[in-house]
Specification:
The structure is a homodimer of 587-residue chains. The first copy, chain A, is built from 23 helices and 19 strands. In chain A, helix 4 (98-108) packs antiparallel against helix 7 (153-166) and helix 14 (341-353) packs antiparallel against helix 17. Chain A starts with a helix and ends in a 15-residue tail after the last helix. At the A-B interface, strand 9, helix 13, strand 11, helix 17 and strand 16 of A face strand 9, helix 13, strand 11, helix 17 and strand 16 of B.
Chain lengths: 587, 587
């Protein structure tokens, strides 16, 4: 390997070790369920990510949870019985006829169609807590009749054509990490599981710096391909797609596109709608394909009409993305502590408006989240820093953490860092060096694994996020937080993870002792209502799906804008076969 | 004035002196028509810009034109008779009923509706050569029945509602600089001339850095408002809208938005679709208003559906734009000469892909344009530089010029400049310092004035532009240039003026001795066909209008994408009253 080769630090390999190890518990350690779920079980479906990777909370975090929820060691001595280790079993007969099934089989081949119970359920749900609770409680509903594994774009086009003729609902399962009931097969029909066969690179264009992929390609496979191009294809540069959502390892390119997703590095690389160059869809009225020209003035932007439709206009088959040169050596890390969340917000706004270039990862946590991170990211062990902070009047629960790093050419990154540092100082930020960011990076893609481990003890972790202008941010934060806190003993952490000169998102994480589905549904729904009432947009990058859809027409967009989407749906899908059953409130 | 105040270099004041003065002609000087056209004349309508500002070609440029077209001083001794100094006179009766007219009058007030011949013609055409030729030849067609001057958004909403009920076509005249027959009143009806009353700032938001304006606000008025805010409103910063098309002084914010325009500084500030935050439209089915949140995942992007509709969905009434802090001291100028156009292209691509931040103005001219600029921008007087270039093997006609400057925070700009310089060297570019850029800046908003002066002698100047990926750029250039050159004695200059990591635009300027409308139409149409056949998008920022529309359905978008726009038109405007008569090929 030449020196040049060694310089590729492969982003897709930068992951945590398989089994998370950290300081052993000093006190009582609950018996967390770290058993790999067996094939065919409910747990194997709802469990986050790799079947053989488990993550348990650090002792400090568990301590905090106990304190906040008034729980004791006793409460952690016995796991709840609904752990999902039972085999999937239910009785929902197929509605598709034998003739229909054999027509579908003729398109994809015998090995690429399945109708067994487990397979049907395995693609029916996403990963919102509502899905997890249903699976833990063996509530099986909304399964497709058949699961297909297409391998070619033409197969998907034929499937959509056939299903339109036969009025068979068509759902798509990419990575399955939807938290909006986006993939749920409310009307039965078929689900196209893209993971198995529809996951390849179609072409790479070195001159234009673009890559075209099948929609089912998963994040790490794409990143590996791009990182390795100097070795596999002799390119001068290694590349990155720049899109790293928390679900990065368990989400597909197609899913990113149809929901308007955002990666954690989006402040530099842009949301997916800024990265997409070209899209190809199989719709009931035929193939829709845009070009890959970066800017034009030839009428409304068709690409932006298709993105965000969440499968209701057609199946996204191929997509071309911009790619970026990989320059990870220029990822300069930073971390600051501000006295208050308001100081942190003001600092964030200034960073975004000063025109010095944007950092890549740029996260600002409110007081409660900062405290939580202290417990979770080993900061509680940094006694000298904590003492210094205390001495300087930074108060736990109020002080707010900023972390992040740069991306881009070296001089660009240096200048961003220089300005971030200068502004942090101006707003009373104390530098913590890059150490906090490094801690955060260790868990950036694996934190969701914690959910399952603590849920076995009745602790629920769920997230919601929204977007707003800067001048409404503190109001949204207060308003939504007040709602969350109206439920006693609920932890609510908030952060900004995607910022713009004109505003940012707010990401709410709530942690509660909560086991009942009805309570979850009511609380979740109230939270969505609070987000809407505060004046924020209901989703910055999770999408709308079927779960948030009831608000889309009446509140988020209003009738006149929602009617535009309805008119488009009618145009593309007059028979309502595409992701039907409430997606975007369209039927 | 404090030091701080003095630091505002007002972009809107940075204009050429009223009467362009330059070195006197040494040889024969034609009698150019520098007479201010009288009120009521055809010339007062077709003349570019201010009635009392005239621009004549420099002696070197005229010499080049004579050489290329085989013309002699004799040809410049007599101006053509169709100079448009006659008063407008025609006989096209009104089709609106007295009742309809008085209903419209009731909405806008007696002083704000006109039906005289001159007023009707003055808003009927734009500024493409086809418009100019028609006016020079007194070809009056497609005039509206009445011209209205609304002052309030509600008035426009009432007008659209009334016209929809009565099936009266509605056209909008912003700045009138369309080169696509975008404003032309093909079906009669009414035209809303926004210049008089609908041109104000609605609100400025310092926290979000946004400004909301009425759609008829003109470029300089907006820029003056933003530049002056520290004096008028005590803001800490002066601001700029960052959008400076060549038509900047004679175009409206609304026109920029509905056509998807681009300013000359767009490589840094973005095209208008990247600058728009919020839009409000009066459509036949009611008011459509988007929010101003910078990013969201709540379905297809309604804002991007409305932009580019060119008035066929409704009348844009109010628009909110991002604004930027004004930091003109950081505009570092650069200029380079490359040996070939291909070297210049390769350099341009590298600048856009190196992730060091983008320059603001970034222009790369091909060999023929470079030669033309040498003649036009005093470079022919820079004998030592020319001698040096020659010595180093840079050949006139082949060598290609790059000029531009940076925008943004100081360190950001310095880094962009550093990288531009480094890469220029790598691609064989010889630095010309910032002097060429300064020359270019002098004429950046006034060059269109040249058109009228030389057209009096039968010399026609017209422009077309398109967009493509990098890997198709040289092909497009060769293909379109070959078409242009198939007509003997035609000058064709080409440049890149808007660049992206994945591609850029190409801007073609053709200059020819041509006076016949049919010849112009055939040549122009052939050029559009050549652009399409070469694989480029037919418009990067001029829009489609009625002139390019015949290609939109069959070639540019194809039927399936064009059908989407048709479906939207049907939704918004079922009676086809909005900018009807061929805009975007919709009726």
């Amino acid at each position: 390997m030449s020196k040049k080769d060694k310089d590729f630090r492969l982003t897709w390999q930068a992951e945590a070790p398989k089994h998370k190890t950290h300081k052993p518990y000093k006190g009582f350690k609950p018996e967390f369920d770290v058993k790999d779920p067996e094939a065919g079980t409910y747990r194997s479906i709802f469990k986050w990510g790799a079947q053989d990777f488990h993550k348990i909370p650090k002792e400090g975090l568990l301590k905090l949870i106990k304190e906040r929820f008034g729980m004791t060691d006793e409460d952690f001595k016995k796991r709840l019985p609904n752990d999902g280790h039972e085999k999937v079993e239910y009785d929902i007969p197929l509605k598709l006829t034998a003739k229909q099934l054999s027509a579908l089989e003729a398109i994809v081949g015998k090995d690429n169609i399945k109708t067994d119970d487990y397979t049907r359920l395995s693609v029916a749900y996403g990963k919102t807590m509502f899905d997890l609770l249903r699976l833990r409680n063996k509530i099986v509903e909304n399964v497709p009749d058949a699961v297909l594994y297409p391998a070619e774009t033409e197969q998907i086009e034929k499937i959509v054509e056939f299903c339109n003729k036969e009025r068979i609902p068509v759902y798509v399962y990419g990575g399955g990490s939807s938290v909006t009931r986006g993939v749920e097969c409310v009307k039965g029909g078929i689900s196209l599981d893209l993971r198995k066969n529809f996951n390849k690179v179609v072409k790479f264009n070195k001159v234009n710096q673009t890559v075209t992929v099948q929609a089912g390609m998963m994040g790490p496979a794409l990143e590996e391909y791009l990182n390795m191009l100097p070795l596999t294809d002799g390119t001068k540069y290694a590349y990155t797609c720049g899109h790293f959502p928390q679900s990065y390892k368990w989400s597909s390119v197609g899913g990113w596109v149809v929901t308007r997703g955002a990666g954690q590095n989006s402040t530099y690389f842009g949301k997916i709608e800024n990265i997409v160059m070209h899209q190809k869809y199989a719709t009931p009225i035929g193939v829709i394909e845009t070009d890959s020209i970066p800017a034009k003035a030839t009428g409304p932007d068709i690409g932006q009409i298709m993105m965000g439709a969440e499968g209701t206009f057609g199946v996204l088959t191929e997509v071309t993305l911009r790619v970026f040169r990989l320059m990870e050596d220029n990822q300069f890390r930073f971390g600051f502590m501000f006295r208050t969340w308001q100081d942190a917000q003001a600092f964030g706004r200034e960073v975004m408006q000063c025109q010095a270039g944007f950092p890549s990862v740029f996260r600002l946590s409110d007081g409660e989240e900062t405290e939580m991170m202290m417990y979770n990211y080993n900061l509680d062990e940094m006694k000298p820093v904590m003492a210094l902070l205390k001495m300087k009047g930074y108060e736990l629960g109020k002080m707010s953490l900023c972390l992040g790093f740069t991306d881009g050419e070296k001089g660009f990154c240096k200048n961003v860092l220089k300005n971030v540092k200068k502004l942090a100082k101006q707003y009373g930020g104390m530098s913590l060096t890059g150490v906090v960011t490094k801690e955060w990076e260790k868990g950036r893609f694996t934190d969701p694994y914690l959910r399952d481990t603590v849920q076995d003890f009745g602790i629920m972790i769920e997230t919601l996020e929204c977007a707003m202008n800067w001048d409404n941010m503190n109001h949204v934060w207060e308003y939504v937080r007040n709602y969350c806190k109206s439920r006693p003993n609920t932890i609510v952490c908030t952060h900004i993870s995607h910022a713009y000169p004109q505003g940012a998102n707010l990401y709410f994480i709530f942690i509660a002792k909560m086991t009942e589905m009805e309570e979850f549904k009511a609380y979740h729904s109230g939270l969505l209502q609070a987000i809407h009432d505060s004046g924020a947009a209901m989703s910055h990058h999770h999408g709308i799906g079927k779960m948030f859809a009831p608000w889309l027409r009446t509140s988020v967009l209003g009738e006149s804008q929602h009617d535009i989407i309805k008119a488009l749906r009618k145009h593309f899908d007059p028979n309502c076969i595409m992701n039907p059953g409430g997606t975007l409130g369209l039927d």
